[in-house]
Fold this protein.
Amino acid sequence: MSAGDEEKEILLGINEMVKEFSRQGKNSTQKVYEGYHEWHVWRKSFKDFAQMLFTWDDAELDDINKAVPVRSKNIDFTTPVQADESMVFFDPVYRQIQFENDEDGKPAGKYPDVIHGIRVTEDNSIEVNLFAPDAKSVSVVLENGTEELLYRSKKNDGYWEKTIGNPAEGFNYVTFMVNGTPVVNPAAPVGFGYNRAVNFAEVSERNFSWHELKKTDHGQIHIHYSCDGDGQVSMNYVYTPAGYGEDNCDTGRVCVLECAADERNFCWIHQGKIANIMDNLSGEGRIKGIMIIMADSTISDDIIGNITAIYGIKDSAQKEWFKKGDNESWTSCRHRFVNLMCGIQ
């Protein structure tokens, strides 16, 4: 249990909890840090907590040399799920912190809901907003190359806005342009394409939903670090379905995904929605026990072999290869991937 030294009421409560744990014969640890209810206190608390959590007596800290059974959890989604699922999915970009003080001068931060940089409406139009009070011109370039000019908002001072009707369904890169220069809108979902950070919009598809987050058993995404002969360290992502490593769940089948030259392997997670697709296909019995390796276009056979060996898969095992085209949209890529997965079973 932890708190800042200025959080007097919380400290009193912690002291009572320590006494209660002691009365029940249970151990507890109390930590107090300089500060109030604020970020640096929480960061220090988490650091100490993590060290305690992973360094108990008899902890096994060696690398796992084979696949192990995992527990899957069926999640009940009782609230609408954001369609974008970007890298800040659980900390939305349009929730901006305001550092304020209360009447006693103590920190009292707030998280106001600012104007969304990109919002998809119920009729699948795209509303775009950008705060650029000193700009002379603002526009957005859609993935199909169409450029849309924004207009100064009459309601929100300093903002530029526009509603774009009939956009392409699915994933759409949206490049904001200020005075002719591409910029990233911090109040909109951010992805990666064209070898740079870029905003995007996720428009619902009428006849395709395999990529959406649904109520089903969910697999896991693992990160594997590799080092080439030049000492360059890279990360590769691996998806294993729910229950992988258990009896009748591990088929030894592998599919290697290779991203486009101007994108990175993590795009398969946030833009390709590969984990969602695999979860949903597995949940409906369309596929079974397939491991996915998400790779850059430069991955070597040696690295792939090292990764599969960790999961007990022989190097001679058959592997499916799937490459995203350099000019292919993520929407098209998702559709092709589903067809491939359903076709190889």
Residues 8-23 form the longest helix (16 residues).
